[in-house]
Design brief:
The protein has 164 residues and is an alpha/beta fold. The chain is 41% helix and 20% strand. The chain has a five-stranded mixed beta sheet, sandwiched between helices. Helix 1 runs parallel beside helix 6.
């Protein structure tokens, strides 16, 4: 798991390397974008955010394949990868993060409450990870997922070469 990263630290690290960011969010409903845009001047770094809560939105806004959704479900590493790739393809960003999960209440034996899938795409490489936050409640899972996404962005920026 990545180390915590504040929105201010993410923005400053991206500025130093002249990188633009995008976020594709499902269960966090825009919390990552909100955390970044709470900081004055963030528009030079955050290129755009996508809130794609429904499967239709994931398909229409990000190009997530119906076959991927049918085979793996919205909460899966496969969908997270397609969400991040779609955010890059539909923006001018250098790095995109995606978040899709089950904040609760609910879940199932195969996809429990608190499971959140993340992906990073773009400069610094592509990767995905799944985190089991448990069932501490919807607000706690969403906040933890947003914080984790910021940490992943910081890691992706750190791995990236500066842009000219």
């Amino acid at each position: 798991m990545s180390l915590p990263a504040s929105p201010e630290a993410v923005l400053e690290a991206a500025r130093r390397k002249h990188l633009r960011l995008a976020a594709a969010e499902s269960c966090t409903g825009g919390m990552v974008s909100a955390a970044l845009t709470d900081i004055p001047g963030s528009s030079d770094v955050l290129e755009r955010g996508f809130v794609t809560y429904s499967n239709d939105a994931k398909r229409e806004m990000l190009g997530v394949a119906e076959a991927t959704l049918a085979a793996h479900g919205a909460v899966s590493p496969e969908v997270a990868v397609e969400m991040a790739a779609g955010a890059l393809a539909h923006s001018h960003a250098d790095i995109a993060v995606s978040i899709t999960g089950i904040a609760g209440p609910g879940g199932s034996e195969h996809k429990p409450e608190g499971r959140v899938c993340f992906a990073i795409a773009g400069a610094g490489g592509d990767w995905t990870e799944t985190v089991e936050f448990g069932a501490p409640g919807r607000a706690t899972v969403r906040a933890a997922a947003a914080a984790h996404a910021l940490a992943l962005l910081a890691e992706a920026i750190d791995r990236s070469a500066p842009k000219a």
